[in-house]
């Protein structure tokens, strides 16, 4: 209603504010007054704009489209009219004419952040992601305090499946508007996608505190809490040597304890298998970190796995057995983190592709060089974050 107020007539002290009349349900009276004025002056673009704004506020979209279209035809330089006209067209399912109005508004007011933001929305809805990002980035530069822009950029990143960027933008939206339930819920979704279930649950708790009767948020929070409990029950990180010895990695991989290794930083328990080294460090008898290294990665990458029963999707789309390198690494990630196999596969692919470290569910992951005896190896290291 804030933008509508700008478009309604300024009244004298003896007249009642049209906004108050609308809030009281007197939209018919406001519309009647505006139409009476238009009958006397049908070429008044401001009156058409005000009439269109009222129709838009009460959801009479065809009438809003007609009135705002008249306002734009009478004054094509009125940015407010084009913005509201584009809004009406969008709600009526007419995205192309709406985008045209916004392009014209941008030409008239290139420094108006609202225009860039709304044009970004139009491009996003049409799947034109690069154009949408350019518009939203411009809106952010012009008005860095508007929480709607990072919220929309987060949605754009969601559509692009760029989860890390999505989390960053949604975090910014929440920082700018902590009371926005929608911002916290979308932030929680992005965090959950990254496996950051604890922080996702915290965001939903804050959202529910602001909207206590929202059953959808309550249900999603319950799912996240169950996921956290499930994660904790299956995760080797933080467990003891007993759980490690029972794990699929140790049992099926036939890993045998082989003393200790001291790399100068951490003294770790060493486990050896036919193609792998596993180092496990403890903090008060709880697993604090793990490193898995293949002793002959080239050979492991050529050898089909017949132990862990891990499958992968080939370029042809067919499902086939993973190689030993993939099977060992994905099994290690799945059990160390307590995550689903699909997530373990995604994390493994990310480590190989980017080479940079990442985090998941309160754990840090990275590729690390290490020396065991005379061998220099590269392993996957997992430690408790922070």
**How many distinct beta strands?**
9
* Spatial ordering of strands, largest sheet: 1-2-3-4-9-8-7
The percentage helix is 55-70%
CATH superfamily of the largest domain: Tetratricopeptide repeat domain
Task: Give an overview in words.
- By secondary structure, the chain is α+β, with helices and mostly antiparallel strands.
- The protein folds into 2 domains: 2-232, Alpha Horseshoe (Serine Threonine Protein Phosphatase 5, Tetratricopeptide repeat), CATH 1.25.40; 241-384, no CATH class.
- Helix content is 59%, strand content 15%.
- The chain has 19 helices and 9 strands.
- The chain has helices spanning 2-7, 18-23, 27-40, 45-57, 61-74, 79-91, 95-108, 113-125, 129-142, 148-160, 163-176, 181-193, 197-210, 215-234, 241-246, 248-252, 297-302, 324-337, 341-354, and strands spanning 256-262, 267-272, 276-283, 286-294, 311-313, 319-321, 358-360, 363-372, 375-384.
- The strands form 2 sheets. Strands 1-2-3-4-9-8-7 form a 7-stranded antiparallel β-sheet, with helices on one face. It has a two-stranded antiparallel sheet with strand order 5-6.
- A hairpin with a 4-residue loop joins strand 1 (256-262) and strand 2 (267-272).
- Helix 3 runs antiparallel to helix 4, helix 5 packs antiparallel against helix 6 and helix 7 (95-108) packs antiparallel against helix 8.
- The chain starts with a helix and ends with a strand.
- The model is unreliable at 1-14 (pLDDT under 50).
In short:
With 386 residues, this protein is of the alpha+beta class.
Topology at a glance:
Layout: H1 2-7, H2 18-23, H3 27-40, H4 45-57, H5 61-74, H6 79-91, H7 95-108, H8 113-125, H9 129-142, H10 148-160, H11 163-176, H12 181-193, H13 197-210, H14 215-234, H15 241-246, H16 248-252, E1 256-262, E2 267-272, E3 276-283, E4 286-294, H17 297-302, E5 311-313, E6 319-321, H18 324-337, H19 341-354, E7 358-360, E8 363-372, E9 375-384
Antiparallel strand pairs: 1-2, 2-3, 3-4, 4-9, 5-6, 7-8, 8-9
Helix pairs in contact: 3-4, 4-5, 4-6, 5-6, 6-7, 7-8, 8-9, 8-10, 9-10, 10-11, 10-12, 11-12, 12-13, 13-14, 18-19
């Amino acid at each position: 209603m804030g933008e509508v107020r700008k478009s309604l007539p300024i009244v004298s002290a003896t007249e009642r504010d049209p906004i108050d009349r609308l809030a009281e349900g007197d939209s018919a009276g406001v519309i009647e007054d505006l139409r009476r004025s238009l009958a006397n002056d049908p070429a008044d673009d401001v009156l058409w704009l005000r009439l269109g704004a009222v129709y838009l506020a009460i959801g009479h979209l065809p009438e809003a489209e007609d009135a705002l279209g008249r306002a734009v035809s009478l004054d094509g330089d009125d940015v407010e009219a084009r913005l509201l006209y584009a809004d009406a067209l969008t709600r009526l399912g007419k995205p192309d004419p709406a985008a045209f109005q916004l392009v014209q508004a941008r030409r008239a007011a290139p420094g108006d952040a609202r225009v860039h933001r709304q044009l970004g929305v139009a491009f996003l809805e049409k799947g034109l992601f690069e154009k949408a990002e350019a518009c939203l980035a411009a809106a952010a530069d012009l008005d860095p305090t508007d929480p709607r822009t990072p919220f929309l950029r987060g949605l754009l990143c969601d559509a692009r499946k760029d989860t890390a960027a999505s989390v960053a933008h949604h975090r910014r939206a929440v920082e700018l508007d902590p009371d926005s339930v929608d911002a916290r819920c979308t932030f929680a979704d992005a965090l959950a996608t990254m496996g950051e279930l604890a922080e996702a649950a915290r965001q939903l708790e804050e959202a529910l505190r602001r909207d206590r009767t929202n059953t959808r948020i309550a249900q999603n929070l319950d799912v996240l809490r169950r996921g956290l409990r499930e994660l904790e029950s299956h995760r080797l990180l933080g467990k003891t040597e007993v759980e490690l010895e029972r794990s699929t990695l140790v049992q099926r991989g036939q890993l045998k304890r082989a003393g200790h290794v001291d790399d100068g930083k951490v003294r770790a328990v060493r486990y050896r298998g036919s193609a792998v080294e596993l180092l496990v460090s403890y903090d008060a008898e709880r697993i604090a970190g793990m490193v898995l290294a293949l002793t002959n990665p080239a050979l492991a990458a050529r050898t089909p796995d017949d132990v862990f029963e891990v499958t992968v999707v080939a370029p042809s789309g067919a499902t086939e057995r993973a190689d030993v390198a993939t099977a060992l690494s994905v099994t290690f990630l799945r059990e160390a983190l307590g995550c689903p196999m699909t997530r373990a596969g995604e994390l493994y692919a990310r480590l190989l592709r980017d080479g940079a470290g990442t985090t998941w569910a309160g754990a840090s992951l990275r590729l690390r060089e290490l020396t065991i005896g005379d061998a220099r190896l590269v392993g996957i290291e997992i430690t408790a974050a922070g």
